[in-house]
Amino acid sequence: MAELQEVQITEEKPLLPGQTPETAKEAELAARILLDQGQTHSVETPYGSVTFTVYGTPKPKRPAIFTYHDVGLNYKSCFQPLFQFGDMQEIIQNFVRVHVDAPGMEEGAPVFPLGYQYPSLDQLADMIPCILQYLNFSTIIGVGVGAGAYILSRYALTHPDTVEGLVLINIDPNAKGWMDWAAHKLTGLTSSIPEMILGHLFSQEELSGNSELIQKYRNIITHAPNLENIELYWNSYNNRRDLNFERGGEMTLKCPVMLVVGDQAPHEDAVVECNSKLDPTQTSFLKMADSGGQPQLTQPGKLTEAFKYFLQGMGYMASSCMTRLSRSRTASLTSAASIDGSRSRSRTLSQSSESGTLPSAPPGHTMEVSC
């Protein structure tokens, strides 16, 4: 009896009727270019429709970078300077990106009808699983600013297995107290909604200086065709619940976290307090000099470099070439909580804005960094 031989058959992608291998390759290339330019999708959720834009193609065994913007902005006005920065290209070549626009914040969004009940920040967080299910993505690295940082944190508390890391800029995890409410109401009597939002986004020093950046964003918000929608998002942010972070407790972020705030940001105290409530072995604290209220707009280079170190600490981009920050290693490093060297878990790194050095350390350290 003849000896049987095992034959492996490799299945190739089927061609469409009348399609040659050459045209199939051209179609695949065109589709890839289209993905790199960004494709916008909308998905229905229990709390309404949400729009998001996807850049790049999914990478095997890699999470998606998932962004969520602050009040008064959309994904472009919040993140475009950061993700278009030259050194950021090395990162975005290695990860697919998903940029979410909060409902009614996307470009060309119609104004919601009078009496429309805008989702709470908790409900906005509950929309995220619908997006990931639509895209068939299993895990993310979240990058959020202000209200977006709160939303991603809320999502991470309820879906910890799907979040590999978080970069939280200007996060305020606390609900408004009575004194905050009184101040907010008093400010509302003398200031317009755009001015209140600008005071949320930028420091008073920046607003007084009235730089070209401030003029640009004042114009964007003041003349926004969807200003009524922006006010609804603003109201949801001011009605947020306390995240109840507790160091060592159940209510905490279980993934690596990088907290970022500008040295003159309106939310500096809130971010410092948030840092004190999170696991020090999982949290890095980055305080950026000369960055004001929106470091992703004013210091995209420094934030990009910090993001690279953060990804390296998570085990990604191990061969990444560090550029402007790593060239000048003039840091003063002191241990903030080390009785003996083997138990050192908290470090403080003080830097000038010229040196801008960051340590290549795993997420097992809480670092206060001024760069």
UniProtKB/TrEMBL annotation:
SUPFAM superfamilies: alpha/beta-Hydrolases. Residues 1-22, 334-371 are annotated as: Disordered. It is found in: Cytoplasm. InterPro entries: AB_hydrolase_fold, NDRG. It holds the Pfam family Ndr. Keywords: Cytoplasm, Developmental protein, Differentiation, Neurogenesis, Wnt signaling pathway. Gene3D superfamilies: alpha/beta hydrolase (3.40.50.1820). Its main location: cytoplasm. Belongs to the NDRG family. Contributes to the regulation of the Wnt signaling pathway. Down-regulates CTNNB1-mediated transcriptional activation of target genes. May be involved in neuron differentiation. This is Protein NDRG2. It comes from Microtus ochrogaster (Prairie vole). The gene is Ndrg2.
